[in-house]
Amino acid sequence: MRAFLVLATIAALVPACRKKAPPLTVGLALDVGGRGDQSFNDGTLRGLENMAAGLRYTPRGYEPLPDPDYRLLLPPDLRSRPFPHLGIPQPIVLQGKAQEDYEPNLRLLAAQGADLVVAVGFMMEPATRKVARDNPQTKFLLLDTPILDEAGKPSTLPNVRAVVFRENEGTFLAGAVAGEITRSGKIGFVGGMQLPLIQKFEAGFRAGVAVVNPEAARNVLVAYTGTFDDERKGVEVGLDLYRRGCDVVFHAAGLDGLGVIKAAQLSGKIVIGVDSDQSHVAPANVVTSMVKHADVVVYETVRDVVQEKFTGGDVVLGLAEGRDGIPEPAGTGGDRDRRANPAARGHDRPHPGSCHPRGAEGVPATRSGGDRESARGEAVTEPALLLQGITKRFAGVAAVEDVSLSVEAGEVLALVGENGAGKSTLVNIACGLYRQDSGTVRSSGFEVTPGDPRAAIGAGIGAVHQHFLLVPPLRVWENVVLGR
After folding, report:
1. In this predicted model, what pLDDT tens digit does every residue of 391-420 receive, in sequence order?
2. Residue 245: which of 266, 225, 219, 213 has the closest Cα?
3. In this structure, which of 201, 321, 372, 460 has its CB flanked by the most CB atoms within 10 Å?
4. What separation, in Å, do the N-terminal and C-terminal C-alpha atoms of the chain show?
């Protein structure tokens, strides 16, 4: 009897001694394009920070992401799908300023105890191969390239999931769109570094142009910036292509691509974005984007690690899996290309959305589409700036409540009120410096992400504040330009 009591006591203590498994730690190493490229890097961050962790990164650090804001941060074609947060703690994100940073960053993440390390971009392959071999207990996700052996041939490691995309499929569609909407018959392609991956983008794009517009296919002008992290080079190369007669340019150049988009704005021409839906950067110029859902790949890999279902090896994704393609442009008929390209007005050609296959669906629900038609067929132009039902409270006190206003293109609107009336609060909400409690901000029909200054700037919203925030040595017009 005494032996039975002792054994029973020990058995009762065993469950109490079990320790709860520590939370999963995920690290992510960005390539030189970095946070804010509005493209591939930002897509991976969205998958990790917003989707998996339920967090939003701000200049003050991470903060919880409310469900309504979470939905708005998802690409439109993902908003109807369930991506519940995975309960992981704040991730560790490291930025690489040069290729020499890749291996130290990956080693640091492994040393910090990351259960999963995400390596963003094909240029990280050599570093990932070395660090993964030295840390067999750490799991790795490598994007855009397989693991290569010493002879440069594809290989595998048991602790590395290497995901590559069939980019030529999505870029084929981008080329078909470009061939369909060009009016000058000249189309441009801008790549970053002239490497096999980017040349695959070019090849798919050329093939798409050739199918719908063989004549334009003979006039595709190609330029490479030689980098992925120099926006100014993107502007220079983009302007050169537009000056040479291109009215549509597709870029696959990382951060340089933001410069190409800026060139399209300066030239009043059309540009096709890459990797993420970049239409919010320049709504009047970005007609569509070739999207690679790296966000979903990161999310699903984190989920597999959480559920202890992670496996290494190669994964190839494309249109059939819904991991690349083009989102359907907003608006009806040829509205977006007519708005971006004055020369296209009055020409009614089939809309490129008609050629979109499964996996590239998703009209952005938050867009009303810039110019549209009334019931009588008359053109109706969206306000340059539209605030609807804006409410903002500070410590329970309403600074503005249910305020709506609109500003047409070319209009000057004056807000008049005594101190504390909420004028500055309203301007700061429009510029993304404050996040409204309710209501929406739209620029030319496109909803601007709340509390996101970068999104506001991308939508063309800027501010010049009152006298004590001006730069005294500058002239009035210089201060105005500085505010943009």
Report:
1. 998 877 888 898 999 898 888 888 888 888
2. 219
3. 201
4. 85
